[in-house]
User: Fold this.
Amino acid sequence: QVQLVESGGGLVQAGGSLRLSCAASGRTFNNYAMGWFRQAPEKEREFVAAISWSGDGTYYGDSVKGQVTISRDNAKNTVYLQMNRLKPEDTAVYYCAAKPAIYGGTYYTRIHEYNYWGQGIQVTVSS
Assistant:
């Protein structure tokens, strides 16, 4: 079992930046691929970014490419999502997710592939 807790969300003006953190506890964090998803009101949850457990593999959703960067610190059991040039349409609840992975370079982009989820954190971008 892995517990995930997101932090770093809040209210920011358009054009600003936020860094979300997701702290993991329970199992060996090093063996888990991690992902970030978001869900805006009345919309489906969508993929934002993913990172392999080695950190070598990353992938981004089309709507955020060039705007966000995912990273991880395995020594701190934490994955990060740096978000820049935020827009009102980035307003959503952001979730981190974890999946045990055999290969260090593998990442996952689909909701159903992930085994564990955080409770989510609100990000609101004002215009």
In short: The two ends are 40 Å apart (CA to CA). The first strand starts at residue 3 and ends at 7. The CA atoms of residues 4 and 118 lie 5 Å apart.
